[in-house]
Amino acid sequence: MLLRTFLIAFALLTFFFMHSSLTIAGDKKLNDLSSILNGKDLAKEQLVVFESETCSSCKAFDKEIIANWKSALKIKKTYSMKAPTGWELKEDLWATPTIILFEDGNEVSRYTGYDGNKQAFWQWLGLQTLTPEQKKIAFESGTERAFTGSLLDNHAPGFYVDPISGEQLFRSDNKFNSGTGWPSFFNPVPGSIIYKDDGHRVEVLSASSGIHLGHVFNDGPPPTGKRYCINSAVLKFVAD
Prior knowledge:
Elements lengths: L1 H33 L10 E6 L5 H9 L9 E5 L19 E6 L2 E7 L5 H12 L2 H9 L17 E4 L6 E4 L3 E2 L7 E2 L7 E5 L4 E5 L5 E6 L9 E4 L5 E4 L1
Parallel strand pairs: 1-2
Antiparallel strand pairs: 1-3, 3-4, 5-6, 5-13, 7-8, 8-12, 9-10, 10-11, 11-12
């Protein structure tokens, strides 16, 4: 009887301390998120996501965007509705989530709300961060001049990724010299590409951001017989 009483008491104490530890950890995390960010701890070019604890759209953004973050751009979230110390907002925040791009402590642009449209978010970010040439290709289906792309003669091992989202698009092992003047691949990373047939050509778009990459033709090498003709300007190379 005494042993049973001891075991029950031990189990209750164990549960109490475990629950207390979890509560303390949870409170610390909440306090950390609620604190105003220190601008000195952030990057020169920085995304800050202003959220609230009870916001369902914020939870969706966390799950669908932040949890899979591969972009080279630094991102930080906060429950504080104040600008990081030493930094400036153009206007007060009125909704969550609000994602703000800062450069040198100044607000450049903001994206307010999130309805699950991931491509809309990435395209907003691309409009802020890509060069004029990149935007012409990515958003207006432009084409760089043949034999001018910086990645045409790149033969290093690694991945070619979306310049906005950082998602992998092509592997160097699937790159070949087509002689056409543009980087050419015979196979993309599975699930990374969307196809759009206009009746004349098949356009290739990034599945993550929706940006225009190039076109695919049926004159490639084995084993696929495909030639993905892609603009260097809308690729970023990440070496192994």
